[in-house]
Design brief:
The complex is a heterodimer. Chain A is of the alpha/beta class. Chain A has helices at about 35-55, 70-85, 100-115, 130-140; strands at about 5, 15-20, 25-30, 55-65, 90-100, 120-125. Chain A is built from 4 helices and 6 strands, in the order βββαβαβαβα. A 6-stranded mixed sheet of chain A has the order 1-2-3-4-5-6, covered by helices on one side. Chain A is globular, with a radius of gyration of 16 Å. The model of chain B has no long low-confidence stretch (mean pLDDT about 85). Chain B has helices at about 15-30, 35-60, 60-65, 90-105, 110-120, 130-140, and strands at about 5-10, 70-75, 80-90, 145-150, 155-165. In chain B, strand 4 and strand 5 form a beta hairpin. By secondary structure, chain B is an alpha+beta fold. The chains are: A alpha/beta, B alpha+beta.
Chain lengths: ~140, ~160
């Protein structure tokens, strides 16, 4: 089965599957108006992969700096698909967010409430250098 | 005296390609805001408001849209950031929009969260995406959304304002 890789754009994320880790990565930014068109290939690929490979465990690793409402709808759809596939495969989601990003943390915790797919939020430290550079450029 | 500094302004048509380009152009203009938290929240709300206008424009015929361009503005007012959109709507949509905004403004944070997820889960092409976007904005800013309906040369416009302190 062909591996999955969807290249990022300025408004949509990189989506790729690492076969050795059995992990689907979603990285970057997700603010497309047509999010369903962006995510449908990945959702359909997951269904085929689970049915063809009969894999026991599979992971999702998400790290996004922004995602819009249409992306939220796709995530709800994606998690429902994973719930349906749980009969054959156990899923776990790792969702990474910057320590200062309270909105992202809130969104992740809300998804934890509404899906029975285990989601583990993983906090990472902010890139403080960016703040210093912008402060120097605009306030000196 | 109140200072008004415009960070970004666009007046025109909100097509699929234009909304994409607007989002690409917008972000560099926000770098003067050095707080990353504020900048991210501002970008998120701007995305939702721009795409909200696009969703309404999609339902209206080309000729009507060409006669009635929409607006998007971000500006600093006193100690807040104001994000404003103004877009043409059909008179028939006014009542429904008013009811929606009044309902959203009456909800507490938990009710907004529940309503938001229920609407996200009702996935179909008939579910108006614009309404969910407005809900998303209300959840992010933790205060009421300001709105009004104004008449511009005989056309009905819906003006939506969000504030970030």
């Amino acid at each position: 089965m062909q591996n999955l890789r969807i290249e990022p754009t300025s408004i949509s994320p990189l989506i790729y599957f690492n076969n050795d880790e059995r992990t689907l990565y979603i990285q970057g930014r997700s603010v497309p108006e047509n999010a369903l068109e962006c995510y449908s290939p990945a959702i359909n690929w997951i269904k085929r992969y689970v049915n063809d490979s009969k894999v026991e465990r599979m992971f999702l690793d998400i790290e996004l700096d922004y995602f819009n409402t249409t992306t939220s709808r796709c995530f709800v759809l994606l998690f429902k698909v994973l719930e349906d596939l749980q009969e054959h495969t156990n899923f776990k989601i790792y969702w990474r967010y910057e320590a200062s990003d309270e909105d992202m943390q809130t969104s992740i915790l809300e998804y934890k409430r509404f899906t029975n797919i285990p989601i583990e939020p993983l906090e990472f430290e902010d890139n403080d250098n960016e703040e210093d550079i912008l402060d120097m450029l605009y306030n000196s | 005296m109140i200072r008004e500094d415009i960070l970004f302004a666009y007046q025109g048509y909100f097509t699929f390609k234009i909304t994409e380009k607007l989002l690409c152009l917008l972000e560099p203009h926000l770098y003067s805001i050095t707080s990353k938290i504020i900048r991210k929240k501002l970008f998120y709300i701007s995305v939702e408001m721009i795409q909200n206008v696009y969703q309404y424009n999609k339902t209206i015929g080309t000729q009507e849209i060409l006669k009635n361009p929409s607006n998007f503005v971000i500006r600093k007012i006193a100690n807040s950031l104001e994000i404003v959109t103004a877009n043409y709507i059909r008179p028939a949509d006014k009542h429904r929009l008013k009811n929606l905004l009044d309902k959203i403004n009456s909800m507490n944070q938990e009710a907004l969260t529940q309503e938001h997820y229920q609407r996200l889960s009702a996935i179909s092409d008939d579910t108006p995406s614009a309404n969910i976007g407005i809900l998303s904005i209300a959840r992010r800013i933790n205060r009421n959304l300001d709105y009004q309906f104004i008449d511009v040369n005989g056309s009905q416009y819906f003006v939506l304002k969000a504030y970030i302190p």
